[in-house]
TrEMBL record:
InterPro entries: P-loop_NTPase, Rad50/SbcC_AAA
Quaternary assembly: Heterodimer of SbcC and SbcD.
Family, per entry: Belongs to the SMC family. SbcC subfamily.
Annotated protein name in UniProt: Nuclease SbcCD subunit C
Family matches, as PANTHER family: ABC TRANSPORTER ABCH.3 (PTHR32114:SF2)
Record domain Rad50/SbcC-type AAA: where: 6-176
Organism domain of life: Bacteria
Residue ranges, compositional bias (Basic and acidic residues): 557-572
GO BP, one annotated term: double-strand break repair
Keyword NAD: no
Naturally occurring in which organism (per UniProt): Knoellia sinensis KCTC 19936
UniProt keywords, alphabetically: Coiled coil
One Pfam family cited in the UniProt record for this chain: AAA_23
Amino acid sequence: MVATAFGPFPDEVVVDFDALTAQGLFLIHGPTGAGKTSLLDAICFALFADVPGLRDRRGIVSDHAAPTATPSIELEFTSGTRRFRLHRSPQHARPKKRGVGTVDAPATVTLSELRGVEWAVVSTRNDETAEVLHDVIGMGKEQFAKVAMLPQGEFAAFLTAKDEDRRALLEKLFDISRFADIEAWLVEQRRESEAAVGALRAGIDTDLARLGDVLAASGVSSGSPPVDTAGGPHAGTSTNAPAPDRPAADELAVDPASPEGIRAHLESVGADLDQHLSQMMVALDAAIAVEGATAERAEQARAVTALRQRATTARRTLADLDASAEELIADRARLDAGQRAVSLRGHLATIQREEVTLQGARQALDVAMDSVSRLVDIFSAATDGAIGSPSHPEEAGTLFGRPQDALAAMHGHDDALREAGRLSESRLHRERRTEELIALIEKATRVLGRADADRASAALAVTSAEAMVGDSADAVASREGATVLAAAARDRHELARRTVDDAIKLDALRRAAAETRTAAQDARDHEQDLLARRLSQMAAELAEGLLDDEPCPVCGSDDHPEPTTSRDRVSGAELDEARRVHAALVQAHQDADARATAAQARLEHALQVLDVASVQEIALTSLAEAAETAQRDLALISDRAARLQASQQSLDSARARLARVDESVVAAERDLAQARTISGQERSADCHEATALADLLKSHESCPCAPGSPPSTGRTLTLSADDVAMVREITATHSQVIRLVEAWRNASHDHEVAETRLHDVRADAQSAAHEAGFDSIDGVTHALMMPNELDRLRDRIQGHDRARAAAQSVLDDPEVLAAEAAEEPDVHEATADAARARAAVLTAQAAQTEAATARKSFVTVRTSLLKGLDAAGPALVRHHRIKDLADAFTGGGVNNTLRMRLTSYVLASRLDKVARLANERLRIMGDGRYTLEHSDRLAARGARSGLGLRVLDQWTGVSRETSTLSGGEAFMASLALALGLADAVREESGGFDLGTLFVDEGFGTLDDESLEQVISVLDSLREGGRAVGVVSHVGELRSRITSQLLVRKTASGSTVSISGPGVESAA
């Protein structure tokens, strides 16, 4: 085990238990508080991630260790034929890597298993590791702490504890969950049964109370249900509460006679309720008949009164209508004129629409004339007032005459203006081409001027690039050889390094082969010994198969007077296991020897390749320097070779540049000749187009759009340098004048058409008005009304006529005439009679409904009560059966005289076995005087029993309490009990062998003779193959136990050291 920064140990502590347990018995000693028990805590923490007992695992990190130290436990242990290594680190605080303060480092675990000669990681997860360890060890932390680490203080308390306290420890060590589940299930069934019986009783009590409420509400008198005055209601038929000292379930005692009485009482009550309901129904029918007669008389009185009121209202209506007769005549005349004017609404709309059209045409004409007038002003300003400004827009006609003639004259100049525009644009484009030719000539002249210098520079670049390409090509040719030399130097150095390592490994392989050979020889000797013992025991094995009155398979006799026996029997399984171990070790030796032979062959081959006689002659430093030199030479050559592609690209670029210089000279000479030829042609064409343009502009002076027209104004045009802008301006003015004159012409035409249509529409409307009876169109306009106004006037007249007809029809109605002739009835008295009759009906209905509700409620209560009575009997029988079982299994009840729980009974059997196993050791330690006995005597004051322990004094024959033992006797008894308990738990957990036990303290109470006897018992454990570690500060033990682990404490923490035959170490 290796512990770091754990408990009182600040540094790394190494404990070799293989060396410490070589003698079988070893001592862990040191002053109080040094950390003896902390070593056991470290083992327990490594296995279970926790410490035993009440100690807090948060305190296991050493306070003496440096802040940067990582607490950890590494434990190697063997279980059966498997060997494991467990490395566990608890959660702890460590300094931050950046800044100040600390952070929490999580807990980690690594479980490895030795497989062959290598460690294989099994798990790095806490939960998975716990499962694997439980399967390997076969017990949990509590069991391990009690079985492998025997805490004498706790077992001394266990020896004298009460039954329930002893039970708490045994439950942790033995699995009794199945029996505990049975106890819990029975307790839960008892609780549910009590609840079910209580619910039945409560239901019956509630139903009886409800029955009383139903009878009280219905007013039917009936006798009370029969009850049992001796013990409460039979089957729960009384509302009296149960006695305080008896559970509700016991109060529900069924009496066979009482339920029948309740059923008879229910039948009587049902008959009374049926009779009462019939009486209420008869009274309701009589009240309904009286109500019908009074209601009919009241209705007749209200009808006569209503008819008389209708006649009075009709006469008042006729008088009001006659008062508004003159106003109605005027309304009828307005309605007639309005209806005739409706048919002329379309003519009026047409007139209004044409007036709007004429107004729009007049406005458009004014706008067109105004635009023409502004044009005249512009022309007048252009000719210095020679034309004169018109005083009215209509006077613009003096300039253009008829718009149609002016448009024809202007359109005659359209083609000439388009040609003038084309010629001016052509001259503009020619001027731009001339400028481009001049620039081309200048560029070609510059190219030809610097052609010689560019050609010389390009030729020099080609020469330099060719030299660089030659150098890179030489490097490429030599790179392959340099690569081979560097690889050879590197391989030779690597081979030398591996050869040195192989020489070191060869020694280890030879030692491993020797060790496996020795182990194989030991295993063969062990196998031969077992075989010889097996053969010597064949007679005893045959004797075991002999049966009385059966012949012996050897001699044939039926009489077997003294069959041979053997105490130390060698079984066939043991012999097979020894053979298997021997074969495995032989195979391991052969494998180790083969590995050593192969390593020797590799070493000899490497020495031959390196051309040295031994490993000592290998100069690793010189070989490494040679490999580095070759690698540097290769890097330089590779760098020069890598520039080959770049040098070739530079050469290609230089040659292309020289070719481009030659091509540019040829192109410049060609462009110069072409530009000079084209420039002469362009100048000749420009002179011709300038003359034609001047002629076209001269001819346009006769157009009406030209300022100074007619030609008598004497305006003369000359060709200017900016002829393109001038031609564009003349063309724009020409187009604008055409658009204005066209708008003037169109507006004049639209105005004339609108005036003609308006005159025609007015004539048609006047004719239609005369036909409809109107004198003029204005009369139609005055009579015309909106549709909603016309509808209101029509509705008013029709409403007047309908009201007069309705009033007159009321006065002519025979029923109204008859009502006026009859005597006026007393409506108030008739209504009061009907109300009194209605109240009587409601009272009768309420009584009948109350009787029906009582009958329905009674049926519901009776059904529920009878159901409860039927269920009470079986429920009580089941409850008593379950209650008796549950009480007995939980240590109570009249049937469990020992007051022993089921789990206690199971644990009692385990405790009895523990006592038997403990007595085997106690008999030796105590000279056979004392024997531990399991006791099931009743505990005082009703406490649970069954887990008692007593000690039998064989010298006196008296059985007494364990608390009467002396200190030394109590220690021996508790130690024996602890060892017995360990054996019992080991068998319970599947027979897992514990190779090492620890006994913690308690030896100071023994005298020399008793101490010698205890040590002899511990030695007997060693003979069974187990090692025993004694934790004690008793000085006498140091002389008796030679293998010792000493724990020393200082102000800076504790340390350990191991001493013994052939062992000496310190940590």
